[in-house]
C-alpha cells in the first residue's frame, strides 16, 4: 500500500463535503486544488436550511457550471440520493432529504451524492493508499465513525444507505447508548465526539484535540481514552478481516489522521492472531479523500443523471 499518491491531471470539477463539524467546498483543476471554502456545520439548522447553506457555499466557488459536482455527506445516503442522519446526536434534523435533487435544482446542474466515508473509500481504492489492494475498508474516525468498502474495483452501496456504517457495529470497550439508538457501538467509544464526552465525564471538559495533546504529554486519563479508541478500531479491523477477508484498512478523519494514532491502532492489531492482522495505512489524500472520491464518482456518472 502506498500512502504517497498524486491525483491524475485530468481531475477537474467541484466537490462538497458535509461533515458533522464542518462543510468544505473545493474546486479541482488538472488534479490540483484551485479553490477551497469551509464553514462550521450548524447542527441546529433545519435540514432545508443546512442544504441552502451548502448551496450558497457552492455558489461562491468559481466552478465551471457544466463540470461534474460530487457531494460527500455524513450519514445515510440511499442510491436514489435521499439523505438521513443515523446518529441524531451529530446531525439531529436530517431525515430523508432529497439532497441531490435539492442541490441540482438550486444550482441547475447534475449532482451526485455519496456517504462521505464511501466517497473516501472510492478515492483511496482508485488512486490512494489502497490502490494495489483487491479489497479494502476505509474507516473515518472523526466526529463520528464511518466506513466504506471496495471489493474488486466496485464500491459497496445499498438502497437503504447503511452499507459501510461500521461505527454502529458492536464494540467490547463500550458501555454507552449510541446516538443511533444501539447499545455499545464502535462510535460511542472511538469517535472524536465520544472521546470528548468521556473526558468530560471524568471531570475534564476539554476538546478532542486537547485530549490528544494530554495523551502525547503522558497524562493517564487521556492515555486511557485514546487507547480505548485505538483498541476499538483495531478490534473492528480484525473483525472485518475475519468476516470479509479484507486486504487492508485505511484510516482517515480528524482522529484517524492525528499523529501517532495509526501506529497505536497497528500496535493493537499486532496482538491479534496473524490471520486477523489486517494491513493498515493512513489515507493518502488525508482530509481530501471524501472530496476526491465524490468528484470521481460524479465524473463517472452518465451526463444529465442525478443521484
UniProtKB/TrEMBL annotation:
Alphabetized Pfam families for the sequence: ROK (PF00480)
Annotated InterPro entries: ATPase_NBD (IPR043129), ROK (IPR000600)
GO BP: N-acetylneuraminate catabolic process
Signal peptide: none
Gene Ontology MF terms: N-acylmannosamine kinase activity
Protein name stated in the entry: ROK family protein
Lineage: Bacteria, Pseudomonadati, Pseudomonadota, Alphaproteobacteria, Hyphomicrobiales
